[in-house]
Amino acid sequence: MSRALDILKDAGSVAFFALLIFAPFLGVQLGDNNAGNLTLGARPALLAGAVALVFGARVLMRLWQDHRPTTQAAKLSARLKPAGRFIAPALLVFALIMPLLPGVPAQYIDLGVLILTYIMLGWGLNIVVGLAGLLDLGYVAFYAVGAYSFALLAQDFNLSFWECLPLAGLLAACWGMFLGFPVLRLRGDYLAIVTLAFGEIIRLVITNWVSLTGGPNGITDIPNPSLFGLRFAMFPGPGTVAGVFHITPHPWQRIAFLYYIILGLALITNWVTLRLRKQPLGRAWEALREDEIACRALGINVRNTKLTAFAIGAMFGGFAGCFFATRDGFISPDSFTFMESATVLAIVVLGGAGSQLGIVLAACVMIGVPQMLQSLAIYRMLIFGIALVVIMIVRPRGFISERRPTISLGKAQAISADLISQGKG
Q: What is the pTM of this model?
């Protein structure tokens, strides 16, 4: 009886806050009278229905949590483990042949370019958040550094995309170390606040330094990448792909070329991350994530470990920013807001911190689903938001919540997320 009362009280409090939030939006309706003046009307039935729906959903969620087996996530992971060996190769094969499939619209290839960009950003941030355990809310700053580095170098020194790509990553890595030094002693929420402020500082600098970055107007005419010096143009001629290979120019060719560039960059990011995880540096990141005090007691240099995590993660963010600039041909401060950092962090959390495959699945959901639901107009984001809430209730530790140590004495055992209570570890 007491448990039932507790559930009802909890559902009632949630419904009360839902009433406060929904009242200005669902409970009030603007209209006009015959004279053309605006009128304010009430919609109590709609408001009551929404609050009742929230109350019922909260009750069902609490009942489901009480009767959910504690080992359900572990059993599900064990059942999915054999299939996981084939999911990654299957996704890789599909990614390689997708632009070459007959009948695939160019818009789907362009959507693949966007998804792969966020996969690369997610893998870069995963080094900082998933492996080193450092909560970074300003990752978009390195994304912006890479984009503006390429744009300015190409504009002032007439350098190509391939020449600027390593320079953009190097400059972003330097800014990552620059951020790492002031936050060496910060952890948790304090670290998140400082990194958030760093991201906003970078955005404000590129907005107000008009003489260098163009300010709010941004930078235009950013050069496209070339294929061994050949340009992708809509007319055959000397120095173009169509002219040299004697093929008919088509917009699909440039989109497919950009697709394979970002696919290659993402695969390099994944390969480097997996290799680093098996090196002493990667094991130091994992030790830092689990317990910083124990990490110090083991004699690990925490300062260098944090700086390398920030620098390497920022480097991949700079690579992605350089590609973003050449893909769009135009950049402005509006492309590097806090929402970009929040989106990339949501991909890492939704996929499962530390999981490479989970980030791929989360990026497909976070980026692909809203684009596919554009025909639903204003309701697509509502459906998408509800789906994310349901996913985080059912899988609070992400799609792939297991944590398998890279190095173990004896047989390696995966650590289930059920061993750590939500909000307590």
A: 0.81
